[in-house]
């Protein structure tokens, strides 16, 4: 089996950065180089001030501080890193296509293809190429074809090694992974490649948690795992709507069903809707694949998970509008939280974007506070929707660093991310300075019902009447 001494990772994003940092930490004898075409991003990874790394993950800056310059490097010299490495991870972005066939559903593989062509051009000896990005099934085959047909007659072995890390707990998820999945060919060289990658993970994970499969199973498992998780959230969220109409309480229901060991207690928190870069994209991919094989019933079934999620977001926004007497034009509404969940600065597909957009459509005056998300990011998210002009977005919505101060004379507060700090606020002070009746719409079930009502708030908690 080939001994791996040098790893190259193409793409220094949410997946590549943390994953490679952990590999470098756990495998001090392996030199890990993360490359990206984006100079700014690489500069940010190389910054002296570890608090300004491009990605915020608990535990990440400590590892980067410990390994960078020793066996962990960030560089824009893509070709050099490819040339030197025995194993190349592809961790570039695979956004949903915004044009042509499969628009709005299929993954855009343009970045992957460019990577594969580049590897083929540069490689002068045999390489193991690992697809790490979330990809539609059968991408490995496409990569293999490009490499075999355009390469310099060297041998490429393609592995699928999907990422299961969740943002905010990425380092923890990598170090204590439930399982690692390695898909590869069943040929002797395919087996050798699988074993080589397995040996990297065996530095810190027990062998029985490293599962080897064929390539297709590995690729599809990633989509199915995310589809199942998202389905749980959508399932509980649909029930939250029913709870609000009856006297049932969603938390009691989650607890009651979660005690059934077959169902289990995790991922049953009702919310304003799931976000993140993976859930929606992966389900759309699954739907697209199913449809492309004529399996329309299968596609419809999974598509419903996304439809239910969109419903949850719009239901939440509509409830704000109707509670504020069907008119929010010019009313000051403070949004607490813009990230798609706590402990991350990532806002991709965040429910906050959809809720804010719906409120802005009604001409509300919105003020956003998020402890980690930048003002530029918030405006970029809104501008991307193209619902109204950038000027209008900036006129109607402002971003603040003063979460308590801004509630002065506000009509309502909407909690859209479950940041812990919101629980520690002095809600009595906030109540006193808001306009009355003072509304709080809690999309994360963060605060205590009785306390909020005793203070005097009109408090709405998702999943509770
Ligand atoms: C997910 C998968 O968990 C991970 O394995 C995969 O590699 C990438 O996609 P991530 O998107 O980082 O990870 O976040 P996750 O913690 O799964 O949460 C996704 C969304 O669901 C968030 O918006 C979260 O707030 C929401 N959620 C989660 C709920 O609303 N309720 C829950 O009970 C759990
Ligand atoms: P993910 O969440 O999948 O990690 P990100 O968007 O955070 O996605 O990161 C992907 C990174 O891949 C970006 O920094 C982007 O610049 C980089 N990238 C895309 N195409 C290439 C390429 N051909 N060569 C090197 N880097 C690339």
TrEMBL record:
<dbReference type="Pfam" id="PF03721">
    <property type="entry name" value="UDPG_MGDP_dh_N"/>
</dbReference>
<dbReference type="InterPro" id="IPR017476">
    <property type="entry name" value="UDP-Glc/GDP-Man"/>
</dbReference>
<dbReference type="GO" id="GO:0051287">
    <property type="term" value="F:NAD binding"/>
</dbReference>
<dbReference type="InterPro" id="IPR028356">
    <property type="entry name" value="UDPglc_DH_euk"/>
</dbReference>
<feature type="binding site">
    <location>
        <begin position="92"/>
        <end position="96"/>
    </location>
    <ligand>
        <name>NAD(+)</name>
    </ligand>
</feature>
<feature type="binding site">
    <location>
        <position position="348"/>
    </location>
    <ligand>
        <name>NAD(+)</name>
    </ligand>
</feature>
<feature type="domain" description="UDP-glucose/GDP-mannose dehydrogenase C-terminal">
    <location>
        <begin position="334"/>
        <end position="449"/>
    </location>
</feature>
<dbReference type="GO" id="GO:0006024">
    <property type="term" value="P:glycosaminoglycan biosynthetic process"/>
</dbReference>
<dbReference type="Pfam" id="PF00984">
    <property type="entry name" value="UDPG_MGDP_dh"/>
</dbReference>
<dbReference type="InterPro" id="IPR036220">
    <property type="entry name" value="UDP-Glc/GDP-Man_DH_C_sf"/>
</dbReference>
<comment type="pathway">
    <text>Nucleotide-sugar biosynthesis; UDP-alpha-D-glucuronate biosynthesis; UDP-alpha-D-glucuronate from UDP-alpha-D-glucose: step 1/1.</text>
</comment>
<feature type="binding site">
    <location>
        <begin position="133"/>
        <end position="134"/>
    </location>
    <ligand>
        <name>NAD(+)</name>
    </ligand>
</feature>
<protein>
    <recommendedName>
        <fullName>UDP-glucose 6-dehydrogenase</fullName>
        <ecNumber>1.1.1.22</ecNumber>
    </recommendedName>
</protein>
<feature type="binding site">
    <location>
        <position position="41"/>
    </location>
    <ligand>
        <name>NAD(+)</name>
    </ligand>
</feature>
<keyword id="KW-0560">Oxidoreductase</keyword>
<feature type="binding site">
    <location>
        <begin position="278"/>
        <end position="281"/>
    </location>
    <ligand>
        <name>NAD(+)</name>
    </ligand>
</feature>
<dbReference type="InterPro" id="IPR014027">
    <property type="entry name" value="UDP-Glc/GDP-Man_DH_C"/>
</dbReference>
<dbReference type="GO" id="GO:0006065">
    <property type="term" value="P:UDP-glucuronate biosynthetic process"/>
</dbReference>
<comment type="similarity">
    <text>Belongs to the UDP-glucose/GDP-mannose dehydrogenase family.</text>
</comment>
<dbReference type="InterPro" id="IPR008927">
    <property type="entry name" value="6-PGluconate_DH-like_C_sf"/>
</dbReference>
<feature type="active site" description="Nucleophile">
    <location>
        <position position="278"/>
    </location>
</feature>
<dbReference type="InterPro" id="IPR036291">
    <property type="entry name" value="NAD(P)-bd_dom_sf"/>
</dbReference>
<dbReference type="InterPro" id="IPR001732">
    <property type="entry name" value="UDP-Glc/GDP-Man_DH_N"/>
</dbReference>
<keyword id="KW-0520">NAD</keyword>
<feature type="binding site">
    <location>
        <begin position="11"/>
        <end position="16"/>
    </location>
    <ligand>
        <name>NAD(+)</name>
    </ligand>
</feature>
<feature type="binding site">
    <location>
        <position position="167"/>
    </location>
    <ligand>
        <name>NAD(+)</name>
    </ligand>
</feature>
<dbReference type="Pfam" id="PF03720">
    <property type="entry name" value="UDPG_MGDP_dh_C"/>
</dbReference>
<dbReference type="InterPro" id="IPR014026">
    <property type="entry name" value="UDP-Glc/GDP-Man_DH_dimer"/>
</dbReference>
<feature type="binding site">
    <location>
        <position position="36"/>
    </location>
    <ligand>
        <name>NAD(+)</name>
    </ligand>
</feature>
<comment type="function">
    <text>Catalyzes the conversion of UDP-glucose into UDP-glucuronate, one of the precursors of teichuronic acid.</text>
</comment>
<dbReference type="GO" id="GO:0003979">
    <property type="term" value="F:UDP-glucose 6-dehydrogenase activity"/>
</dbReference>
